[in-house]
Amino acid sequence: MSVFKPSGTKTYHYDFRVKGRRFHGSTEKAEKRAAQEVERQQRKAAVLTMEQEAAVQAQVKGDAALTFDVAAGRYFTEVGEFHAGAETTWTDLERLIRHFGPHRRLDNITDNDITQLVAWRRGHRFKDRETMKDGTPAPFIQSATVNRTTVDLMRKLFTRARKKWGQRFDREPDWKEHRLKERGEVVRELKASEEPALHELLDDGYRDLWRFSLSSGLRLAECFLRWDQIDWDARTITVIQKGKRSHTIPLTAEMIAIITPQRNRHPVMVFTYLCKRSSRKAGHEKGRRYPVTYEGMKTRWRRKKAAAGAGDMRFHDNRHTAASRLLRKSGNLKAVQKLLGHADISTTARFYAHVDMDDLRGLMEGPSHKEGAKSQGNSQGLRKRSGKSG
């Protein structure tokens, strides 16, 4: 029996052994054929994991060198595949493998190699296109993208090799020297005219996740809730933030109104969408509900925000909007810090100083306008009482 349904569940699970090591878990598929395909993929991944671990152990013992493809593969199986954007992580790793070559030894990569890597990556254009749909040249990728997909990922790979796999580096590159200077993050808020348009255009499931992000202030990766993250008695939600820090926020009435209709749609995940077209490749059937995914939400957001006239708005700006609204409502920067989970309030102050500036402007302008109107009214009253007119 390759896959099975545990009692009380709607989805198939897998349970097998490779060289005595047990691998088990949910396929998250309710259709047996799709579940069997997931199980086959899990078996392939398990064999690859065992081979990578054996290669790393041989390298640690001095029997073999840790090559780039082995290091990248193990990094993905241990870390990358658990990222919300796992497909993007794998794409970035594959790009690095192509650049360095699969057999390049990790301990032979130098500062000069990273300099050449960054220069090579800076020459890439948006989505690897030469031109946009309107025929104009595609823009080069931004410095932040170069950093995230090359320098930062290489640093994480080296750090894991050194701390977890026992790899020694006599000349590890100076990562700070290779990071490009990035433009400061621009805080963009959702406009009053854009919110109803997005609400209308986003499909069921995607719309619910977006509304939840706007009410909670959570990052996109943190919005893919499981039911076990919600404490209904304490009325709280707990997520794992960047840096693997646990972060708990209150479950508000607005969030409850968004989440409650999702009950009984999926045994594990909160936000799901209704499949409108069957896909044999994905194992999806028309008319059934499946969990909203990170890549799926990003794609839907990119398409619908343009139609809503909010083409320059990133999904992350929903977090900025939630924080700005709370700050305007409460005037309490500490409350905003707690909502966002910032470790240092200076981070909160840096991003939301514009809200304080708006309030300051209102305080400065409000009284003067009132006094001006009052003075004008008094002058008119005095003229009337004295029988004079303007």
Can you tell me about this structure?
- The chain is mainly alpha-helical and about 400 residues long.
- It has 3 domains: about 5-180, no CATH class; about 195-350, hpI Integrase, Chain A (Orthogonal Bundle), CATH 1.10.443; about 355-380.
- Helices cover about 50% and strands about 10% of the residues.
- It has helices at about 30-60, 70-80, 85-100, 110-120, 145-165, 175-180, 195-200, 205-215, 255-260, 295-305, 315-330, 335-340, 345-350, 355-385, and strands spanning about 5, 15-20, 20-25, 230, 235-240, 245-250, 270-275, 290.
- The strands form 3 sheets. It has a 3-stranded antiparallel β-sheet, with helices on one face.
- Helix 2 (about 70-80) packs antiparallel against helix 3.
- The protein is globular, with a radius of gyration of 27 Å.
- The termini are far apart.
- Mean pLDDT is about 85; it is low at about 370-390.
